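Lab intake sheet, docking and co-folding queue.

SAMPLE TYPE: protein with bound small molecule
LIGAND NAME: zinc ion
LIGAND FORMAT: SMILES
REQUESTED OUTPUT: full 3D complex as structure tokens
PRIORITY: normal
SUBMITTED BY: R.K., bench team

The fields below were copied directly from the construct record.
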Amino acid sequence: MSKPDVLFVLSIDTEEEWQWDEPFPESDFAVDNVKHLPLFQYQMEQLGIRPTYFVDYPVLDNPTSLEQFKQVIKHRQCEVGAHLHPWCNPPYFGTTTEFESHVVNLPREHVATKLDALIQKTQDTLGITPQSFRTGRWGINETIFELLVERGIWIDSSVYPMYDNDYFSCYDAPFVPYYPDFGLPNFAGQQRHLLELPVTVGFNRMDDETGRHLQTKAEKGIWHYCRANALLWHSKLLRKLYLSPELSSIDDMKSLVDNCLRQERPVIHMYLHSSSFLDNGTGFYLDKDAHKHILDSVTQVFEHLSQQANVTCATISEAAHLLGMQNQVSSRIHPLSASRQDIRMVS
Ligand SMILES: [Zn+2]
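RESULT FIELD (auto-filled):
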């Protein structure tokens, strides 16, 4: 049997480090983690992987991390996208609480001026105008989509399938690239100005929609009270998995990759945060050998994928181009797509 063709995208939220369980800092943070990125980029180049760095304002504003990041991009074997952390991206509009930390909760004018400052900073420091974007803390809405398109950004990766919180839900979002309906970001729509390229989330077994159906019952339905989620996980009957070295073991990521290939997904999209490179860092950290853990994870999963498929490595905008945009992407998402009329009928 011939191997399937698949694209491999690796994206890194490139940002400051701070104590994630403390208030959102406007300035009380560090950017030491960026010193790991030049070596990591070199290691990725040896593997042929073409990372996408979603870079936020503090990394570009600090002279030391800026110079370190310039080393990352010197061979132009990667892409620079934009990453908006509203609490440490000027202009400021007061204290950031949990509510304001989510971009989806901010007034249009606040998002617009912060985005403008971020894009301007990226142009001034790196000479690059970002084409791709990810919100800090995930989540997106119609206002943000419109502001991105107005600024020439045509790829978004703020959708985190099967995740929700008090302020937004990506729970039902497609697992594969799609043209979002701006008013209903979890559904495909008619617009062709912006492509959504979600990170890879899925299951160790079962087809995507059966897995989603059962997982939803286990997390949110009546089964929730029977602790079905834990039972499914520990028995390995069904595991919801994220393609990130921060959250998943190498073996789990391999089984996720295998299942994605069985589902004929066109893109495998791994992601992580730059702060995870720090030993004893913040967020998703390891006590020691964090950089080695990330490198080993990426390498082993990528090599496994390469044995199973014909892999083309791409930055996120290269992946969008290679997908052929309109035709291939929209046909791939057919099982999940719905017209606006259909969505209104069920909502
Ligand atoms: Zn972030």
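REVIEWER NOTE: The longest strand covers residues 5-14.
SIGN-OFF: pending second check by T.M.
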